[in-house]
Amino acid sequence: MQKVTRTPLADQAAQVLLTRIRDGEWTLGARLPGETTLAAQLGVGRSTVREAIRQLAGRGVLSTRQGSGVFVQALDVPADHGETMRRASIVSVIEARIAIETEAAALAAQRRTPADLRAIRRALAARADAVGDVDGHVDADLAFHRAVVVAAANPILTELYDLSTPRMRESMTDLLRLHGTFGSAADHDAHAELVEAIAHRRSTDAATVSRNHLTALKETLS
């Protein structure tokens, strides 16, 4: 059962300030009154005013200049601000994946055992079958790439991958939902190509395929 909750004072103060900006009380580039003045106007404490300003700064509306004050940076919350931040976060995760998985793919091609290769092929097949929902596909994709990392036989790379997995899961889920489609034939072929490079011990090709695939994902967000 959903409960009624009280909106924090800082959230209310931030909304009042945003409304005043939208109504034209302060123009673009204008300096806001000091904390003491705003606290008196809003009927809250200075700490609440500081938190409200911090919220609006985080949303791209205000900017704080050390020693100068708080200024209006935008007359409203940018419509795509949340999505912009989400895209930037996804890009950061993909860049980290490139660093880990490209090297892992190259090492896997050099070091993989027959058992490693069987595990990778099983993970590829499971990934191909996981097309019913975003969450299942992401989990199968991460399991496939982990099998490649494990085949690299570098415990530090495996640990880095495992530590990054929760954030990778979140970002890749966001990415697929932004795209609206996943599990295409071209996507499967890219992963199958990586498997074949590893199977035939083509280290350079494995690294190239891994980098190209992840870079292509990154470029879809630009």
TrEMBL record:
For this protein, the record's InterPro entries field holds: GntR_C, TF_FadR/GntR_C, Tscrpt_reg_HTH_GntR, WH-like_DNA-bd_sf, WH_DNA-bd_sf
Keywords assigned by UniProt, alphabetized: DNA-binding, Transcription, Transcription regulation
Q: Which GO terms describe its molecular function?
A: DNA binding; DNA-binding transcription factor activity
Q: In what residue span(s) does the HTH gntR-type domain sit? A: 7-75
Q: Which Pfam families match?
A: FCD, GntR
Where, if anywhere, are coiled coils annotated? none
This protein is called what? GntR family transcriptional regulator
* Native organism: Gordonia spumicola
The beginning of the lineage is:
Bacteria, Bacillati, Actinomycetota, Actinomycetes, Mycobacteriales
